[in-house]
Design goal:
Layout (H helix, E strand, L loop, with lengths): L1 E8 L2 E8 L1 H15 L15 H8 L5 H16 L7 E12 L5 E9 L3 E2 L7 E3 L7 H14 L2 E4 L9 E10 L2 E14 L9 H5 L7 E7 L12 E15 L5 H7 L5 H34 L2 E2 L3 H21 L4 H7 L4 H28 L6 H15 L3 H7 L2 H20 L1 E3 L10
Helix pairs in contact: 1-3, 4-7, 6-7, 7-10, 8-10, 10-13, 11-12
């Protein structure tokens, strides 16, 4: 093979390469061997027609495109991979000329990684707050724990706010039942605001077994068929229960944790909450520092990289939807759009992430970041533990080159974060009313 010409313009490169007859012939023959089993030629059994006969019928170069596909890896390695640019994705074949001696000249066009000029990535100033946990947060967690171990008890008295009323009900509009207005054995927490305003208040005072008509006027902003209408609900109170929430004391602490005292439990809750808050602050600081470094980078981002990042984000979101029982198409329809609408919505995020990616790759290059065999092995072992799989299986699934680049990226992030300057968050300005 011989590269005849290379032309690089912006984020695209065009390479003209001459493929010698012997290599092309090997590819064409492989293509013929694969295709002949499906070709019928008069006078021959299916799959037995000679190549020359097929070429005489369908053209001398009938197998050339498929033949090129057979040797494309070799062509790519020679004509594209060895150049001083980095191709994005698979090159496009924009022209193929076949000479009389069957030498083939190919014109390949490929998107290439852009020129990246780093700005300041060390010493960027980023706001960082302090991890704090309030007494109210501690109490909220204790209340949640108490609710989780709360019990219920039937009571024989008139209903009060805070009780749970098990009711049958049916709504009538001028004596006619309306759709969605009926329920049986429905547990209604009085005071929760779950029902139309005025409904729960009129349950108060009822006793188990009692039936009652309740007059209700629907709000003006309610469902259009009932908005502003005065209706009647016929209600039967089946039973009344109260929730018994345990007192938060040392005995409570023993029941819900490994601690002997309430103070010890509170201290543990505070420590875990502080740790969680600190992780969130550290993560936000890291993200902000990396984003700022990327903002300082100058690059003419090729659309191919943005589309590649869009593919990743759409695939990730599709997986999340699948876990919830939805397809991308179903979700898009529920949101009043289609897959293109969804893709367009993800585009700004993809553009930002693509710029972050090229920034981190350039930092890794400039800083001469490397990954040792020990680091690779440690990461394989970590992944095996995380996914509960054999390390050998992980190695089959994750290419070494891909993992190496990922680890380099992490190191680039660490350089940015370790050198970032944390500044106190700006006080929120109060707006005059």
């Amino acid at each position: 093979m011989q590269v005849k010409n290379i032309e690089k313009k912006g984020n695209q490169a065009t390479v003209v390469v001459e493929v010698d007859h012997e290599l092309m012939e090997s590819g064409v023959n492989k293509a013929y061997m694969k295709a002949r089993k499906n070709i019928m030629v008069p006078g021959f059994r299916k799959g037995k027609a000679p190549r020359k006969m097929i070429e005489a019928l369908y053209g001398a170069h009938v197998f050339y495109e498929d033949g090129l596909e057979e040797i494309f890896g070799e062509v790519y390695d020679f004509a594209i991979a060895k150049q001083d640019f980095k191709a994005i994705g698979r090159p496009s074949l924009t022209d193929m000329q076949i000479a009389d001696d069957n030498t083939v000249t190919l014109t390949l066009t490929t998107d290439v990684y852009p020129e990246v000029t780093l700005g300041q990535y060390k010493g960027v100033e980023v706001e960082k707050g302090e991890a704090t946990v309030t007494d109210a947060q501690i109490q909220a967690e204790l209340d949640s724990m108490a609710q989780n171990v709360a019990s219920t008890e039937n009571v024989d008295r008139a209903a009060e706010m805070g009780d749970t009323a098990n009711i049958d009900f049916e709504g009538f509009d001028n004596g006619v039942p309306f759709e969605g207005g009926k329920g049986e054995n429905f547990d209604l927490k009085l005071g929760s605001g779950s029902f139309v305003p005025g409904f729960e208040e009129q349950i108060v005072g009822m006793n188990a077994g009692e039936e009652k008509d309740i007059d209700i006027t629907f709000p003006e902003d309610y469902h259009k068929d009932l908005a502003g209408k005065a209706v009647v609900f016929h209600v039967k109170l089946n039973k009344l229960t109260v929730t018994i929430v345990p007192q938060q004391d040392d005995e409570f602490a023993k029941d819900v944790s490994e601690f002997d005292t309430l103070d010890a439990l509170k201290a543990d809750i505070r420590a875990k909450a502080l740790e969680k808050a600190q992780k969130q602050i550290d993560s936000a600081f890291e993200n902000a520092a990396v984003e700022k470094a990327a903002e300082n980078t100058t690059v003419d981002m090729p659309n191919a990289l943005i589309e590649k990042e869009l593919d990743v984000q759409m695939e990730r979101f599709g997986y999340q939807l699948q876990m919830s029982g939805y397809s991308m198409e179903q979700y898009a329809k529920m949101m009043g759009g289609d897959l293109k609408t969804m893709r367009d919505a993800f585009r700004p995020t993809a553009e930002k992430q693509a710029k972050i990616s090229v920034t981190l790759e350039k930092i890794a290059e400039v800083e001469n970041l490397t990954v040792s065999e020990e680091e690779l092995e440690e990461e394989f072992q970590s992944m095996a533990k995380q996914y509960e799989m054999e390390a050998a299986k992980i190695k089959e699934m994750v290419p070494v080159e891909e993992l190496t680049e990922s680890l380099k990226t992490r190191k680039a992030v660490k350089i940015i974060v370790d050198n970032a300057i944390a500044v106190a968050p700006k006080a929120e300005e109060k707006t005059e009313e």
